[in-house]
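ok so I'm stuck.
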Amino acid sequence: MSTVVLRLASSANNSRVIIWSGERTMTDRLWTAQELADYFGVPIGTVYQWNSKHTGPRSIRVGKHVRYSQTEVDRWCAAQLSAPVGA
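replied:
not stuck anymore, here's the structure
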């Protein structure tokens, strides 16, 4: 498992550090929120809700853009299958 640290400087005194630990290969393309919505057949607003409530696949920020790794999407789907109904 690799760890990627992204440092986004928003001002001279304030910077955000995002740490993402995930498995990703060179062929593992990052998906946009719209691509994720299309994949699951849900409105893009649902994907945004998942992201804000931390209930969907883990996302990473690339600059101002939110992206989703295929590996993380697959991991989240597997977890949904094993989760009890109503959880």
